[in-house]
Amino acid sequence: MNSVKALAESPDLSCIPSIYINSANSTEPPASDLQDAIPTIDFSLLTSDNPKLRSQVIQELYFACKDWGFFRVINHSVTESLMNMVIEKSKEFFDLRDEEKKEFEENGVLDPIRYGTSFNSKKDEIFYWRDYLKIIVHPEFNCPNKPLGLREVLLEYSKRTREVVKGLLSGISTSLGLDQCYVEKALKLESGLQILVANLYPPCPQPELAIGFPPHSDHGLLTLLINNGVGGLQIKHKGKWVNVNNDLPNSFLVNTADQLEIFSNGKFKSVEHRAIVNNAVTRLSVVVANGPSLDAVVEPAYKLVTEERCPSAYNPMKYKEYLEMQQGNQIIGKTCLDRVRV
């Protein structure tokens, strides 16, 4: 396995190897800038003592999940200094010598720590302009022993982001007409899987030919994203690709994922997104994917299913099986989710 970082730093690199050329780029229309404002959720209002304010933000959360599958979260419990340290320590990991990082080369999709390139380098026909570090941080916390301070920063960050996710899912549960703890109990969130992924997208000499990460939806419930201020994220909104930048200080970009689509019986669609690259600066993003417990069987909430008006649109599947199915194959749009549709 050769890292994209090492390739990008080659002194004579003027064009990319053919394995990185994504032919779909030539047929894709260019992404546009957003015409509508991305919904912004004030997290502090979800715990407000004022029932009117809480009801209002729950309605906003319902709209964000139903019409966008994507929103910003502000006024949460994670400090800006901690978020900055997560980015900095992730950068320090990628700056380690290759022999130090290769200690964590992936073998299986549920390895507690995985370092690699592309998506599934053993099966990808086209490689993506991306290196990654994936760490399972809950229900058991794992972390590389380098660089110094990474473990402490990620341990605190994983705890704080779980609090944010728990609050958001409580509001989402209420917005669906369910008890506020319904999602938490039904999907065993106390032992829910949380994976932290640091993505490195180095400068690419031919960005129009490569892609950082292809169109896909995420496997879990909610994904939280921060980055180093460099753009490159695109989402599919109303059938068209649009550029998204996290330009609000101390905010998360949050997207809905496949298990939430299944659980909501299709009311909330998981959103397709992708990462593009540029030829000037490195983009670094850190995402935290939050899912059910691995042994939870995910299916539409029974209160959202009626035989006549709203039959179940998805077959039940254990989350671990879904995760292995998606992560163990090539990633193409929402094809994995299509396999569990009725």
UniProtKB/TrEMBL annotation:
Q: Which GO terms describe its molecular function?
A: metal ion binding; thebaine 6-O-demethylase activity
The name under which this protein is listed is Putative oxoglutarate/iron-dependent dioxygenase
**UniProt entry keywords in alphabetical sequence:** Dioxygenase, Iron, Metal-binding, Oxidoreductase
Indicate yes or no for the key word Ribonucleoprotein: no
> Organism, per UniProt?
Helianthus annuus
User: Which Gene3D superfamilies does the UniProt record give?
Assistant: B-lactam Antibiotic, Isopenicillin N Synthase, Chain (2.60.120.330)
Quote the EC number.
1.14.11.31
Record InterPro entries: DIOX_N, IPNS-like_FE2OG_OXY, IPNS-like_sf, Oxoglu/Fe-dep_dioxygenase_dom, Plant_2OG-oxidoreductases
Give every Fe2OG dioxygenase domain span. Answer: 191-292
